[in-house]
Specification:
With 248 residues, this protein is of the alpha+beta class. It is built from 10 helices and 4 strands, in the order H-H-E-H-E-H-E-E-H-H-H-H-H-H. It has a 4-stranded mixed sheet, covered by helices on one side. GO terms for molecular function: glutathione transferase activity.
Length: 248
């Protein structure tokens, strides 16, 4: 019996030795996947976000560690010229997201890049299309918000009133898009476990509508899909912590 047990023990040792020698599989952090330190450069509009806020919310939602380089409007002319002269952004615009030596511009495009590199982006073309469609529509929405909120004082009241009057139609359009796209178990387009670049675009603009008081605090009650999206993103740990510290 002793000999049999010894043989059995030896056999089991050989059988399981390859498994024991394999390295333990661990999850790679989003920062490790990006491959370098992350820095977001944008205007210091906090608590208002703007396009830089859209990028900030994405980084927070995905648990990416980053530093911020925030500057005033007075600094912008020199910064803009430096971006053009250096070639870092021939468009001369911010935000800029620097990842190691890589400097990315155009907020929706760079957000898509971050989702792809960190592996949270969908692999199905139809789901990527849905996120891109949201991002495309957001871009128009964002321009109209900027034109109203940052208008010259003699034109601001009229442009803000025009923007506010158009909000119900715009919210209804995005509500319909989410009815079509968010068919899974989560409120995000494509039904994934985390919000992606299109979802964050919509969240960021909903947030800025609130932050600049162009939308009533209870406006989302009429749009259950948008309300669910906003609540889900706002509850993500790093987003919730930022909102608790900065949101008005």
């Amino acid at each position: 019996m002793t000999s049999l047990n010894a043989k059995l023990a030896a056999w089991l040792k050989v059988l399981y030795a390859p498994c024991a020698s394999q390295p333990v599989q661990t999850m790679t952090s989003p920062n490790a996947k990006l491959g370098g330190p992350v820095k977001l450069s944008y205007f210091n509009f906090v608590p208002v976000g703007g396009r830089g806020g859209q990028v900030r919310f994405l980084l927070l939602a995905l648990g990416i560690e980053f530093e911020e380089d925030l500057f005033s409007l007075d600094e912008w002319p020199a910064r803009k010229q430096a971006l053009i002269d250096s070639g870092d952004n021939p468009c001369g615009a911010v935000p800029i997201l620097q990842i190691g030596d890589l400097k990315l511009f155009q907020s929706v495009s760079l957000a898509r890049y971050v989702c792809s590199v960190t592996g949270v982006g969908p692999t199905e073309p139809i789901k990527m299309y849905q996120q891109d469609a949201l991002g495309d529509e957001y871009s128009t929405w964002r321009v109209q918000w900027i034109s109203a909120v940052f208008a010259a004082e003699d034109k601001k009241a009229a442009l803000v009133a025009e923007y506010v009057a158009a909000l119900p139609k715009r919210y209804a359009m995005f509500e319909t898009m989410y009815t079509k796209f968010a068919t899974g178990s989560t409120p995000y387009a494509g039904g994934g476990p985390l919000p992606l670049h299109g979802d964050i675009c919509v969240f960021a603009q909903l947030y800025d509508d609130r932050a600049t008081k162009v939308a009533a605090p209870d406006m989302l009650e009429q749009y259950p899909k948008l309300k669910a999206l906003y609540a889900a993103v706002a509850a993500l740990p790093d987003v919730a912590a930022w909102l608790a510290k900065h949101a008005a």
